[in-house]
Structure formats: structure tokens, C-alpha cells
Amino acid sequence: MTALRVGYVLGTTEGGTGRHVAMLARGCAATGLGVRVFGPAGAAAAMSGPGQVSVDVVPIGDRPRPGRDAAAARRLRRLIAAMAPGVVHAHGLRAGALAVLALRPRRVPGGRGPGRSGVGARPPALVVTVHNAPPSGAAAGLVYGLLERLVARRADVVLCVSPDLSVRMRRLGAREVGRAIVAASAAVPVRPPAPGPAGVGTGERPADLRATGRPLVLAVGRLAAQKGFETLIEAAGRWRDRMPEPLLAIAGTGPLADDLAARARRVGADVRFLGWRDDVPALLAAADLFVLPSRWEGQPLILQEALRAGRPVVAADVGGVRDLTGDDAALLVPPGDPVALAAAALSVLDSPQAAARLAAAAASRAAELPTEADAIAAALALYDRLSGPG
Description:
Elements: E1 5-10, H1 15-30, E2 34-39, H2 43-46, E3 54-57, H3 66-83, E4 87-91, H4 93-103, E5 125-130, H5 138-154, E6 157-160, H6 163-171, E7 177-179, E8 216-220, H7 229-238, E9 247-251, H8 257-267, E10 271-275, H9 280-286, E11 289-292, H10 301-308, E12 313-316, H11 321-325, E13 331-333, H12 338-349, H13 352-366, H14 372-387
Parallel strand pairs: 1-2, 1-4, 2-3, 4-5, 5-6, 6-7, 8-9, 8-11, 9-10, 11-12, 12-13
């Protein structure tokens, strides 16, 4: 009896998408499934680690380009045909659209892939996980709108990381829409709620952040427009008069690094740009407050990690953030509002009781969130259903 084969397609390895696919691929391979990953050059590094899976490079770029994308679809078609998977699971709209194009010549209406007994004549089932909202702007909105429609109308199942994306895909005609489970790594254990104000910022600060007596405000993410760090820097400019002044640390790299540094200088905010860090758990343990100022998020892994670390959280109320935090495990503010963000941050920093209450609520909430095992089990159940007789 031949094990079900699953091919994962991803267009980017940056941020939570690459980590999520690596977790699914390794987890499913560990159960005996045949697994391959098709993605850009960085996919091999993203999939490295325990339970490493096979990777085939497909030149999927960082934005849609017709000529290059047509070549990528042709290569993907050949790789999928050689593997003969029962299920293809694409992550992101660009990867989903390329998977549609790669499978189109072989698909039949209502067709599904072969079962666990082996490869049959039917084409593989197509699952697409939508991880992000389409970018803003007329031109980008038009292109990504087309990708959304293509994915909605051709995928067997569309999984979405937030309720607003589920609504969009249903409106576009997706035949089956489900909720994606994106879980934080078990390497960041849930920190039990600690009694009283001592539970906040108790970890030893890294050497480059030892600003004696100053509260540490932490943000982590790619330095890109979606993450809204300009709003956080503007907010930091508003708390300069607090004594002692909070130290804002932002960990991450990205195309807006120079612009954000210039903005910090312009508003007079004390911001440490930490670049890429592999000690995020230590940063979280040392932080007095974690802030997520994003313009949009689905199920951000860094927010889940902050909750698991028992940090007080202030976050923009966007996308799937409230689904993660509930009503009590974070102070939620409107996106793009530095005044509200600064006020919320100061309300935590100026009240040890409020900070401790949020820290305890964060850890309690984290204990209720899905785990990696839950995410893998949900994927296996879906693959089994789609590849069964039908």
C-alpha cells in the first residue's frame, strides 16, 4: 500500500508562511506521507532541520510577472507530474494561482487525487491557504484580485487565516472555505501566569539592550509596509517625555529599514533597530511590553509567541488578531493611530497592576490556542478526505 503523497507549493519563505509550511511538511513526513516542497531558492534553507524534506526549486518571484510566472508554472507542472501527488497544497495567492495553472491541463470538473492506495488517473486535489490580504493600491489590487478569483474558482478547498479572508473567498465563489490553523512553535513554551507585577519583564536583557531602569518595548517583524512600524515609531515619539523614557526595540529586516530609521530620527524617538535576531524568545522574556502595530495580520506567529511568553500585549485590531487574543489578552487599538497606540502603551507601562493582569491573561489565552500537533492533525484529516474515493 503506497502512502499518500503531498506536494507543497510556496511563493515566499519569509515570515510566518515559510515556518508554517516547514512545520506541516516535516510533521506530515514524520507520519509516513510522501512529501515534497516546491518553492523559491530559499525554500531548502527554510525546510532544514529535524525531519528535513525534499525541495525542488521553482523560480517564483516576489511579485507577479507574466513571463517569469509562465515559466514557473511550466516547471511546476513537470515536477508535479513526476511526483504524482494525491494532494497539492499551495500557500499564498501567487503560489495558489501558479498551482492552478500547473494543474489546469490535467484537471477535470470535481476531480480529486488518488487515495492512499497509490496514484491513479485522477488529478491531485488542490488546497490553497490564503495567508495575507491583497496589497493596497489600484494596480496591485487589480492583479491580486485576479489571483483571488482564479484560486477561489479552481481550488478544491481554500483555507484562510482570518475571518475577513474567509468572507472574501466565499464571495468570490470558492466551493469550500475552511479555517487554517497556524500554530506557534512548541519551542516557545507557554509561560504560566506569574503573580503580581513581578511577572513582567523578568528575563535577563541581552547585552545590547541593557538600558538601566528603562522599560523595554519590543516589536518583531519584517520591516515592510504591512507591519505598520511607522505608526509605532510615531507613538514612541509621543512618549519621549515619560520618565524614564521607554526604549523601543524593533527586531527584523526589510526594505523599509532606512526609511524607518530616518523617521525615528525625525520624531526624536529612541529606537534600537536590532536587525535579524535568533534570540527572539530571550527578547520576549526581557520585554515589559510587546507591540504589534500591523496594518493587517492573519494568525501572526510572533503574536502567539508573545502570548505564550506571558507578555503584556498592545496590538492593532486587524484581521485575525482579536481571534488570537480574545477580548482580555491584549489592549487592541485601531490600526494606523499613533495617538491611541501611545496611550495604550503608556497605560500598561504606568500601571504594574495592568501589566501583570495582561501578562496573566496572555499566558492563559496561549494555553487555549491550537498547537503544532493540532495543525498537523487537521492537515492530515483534510488530505485524507480529499484523496479518498469520491
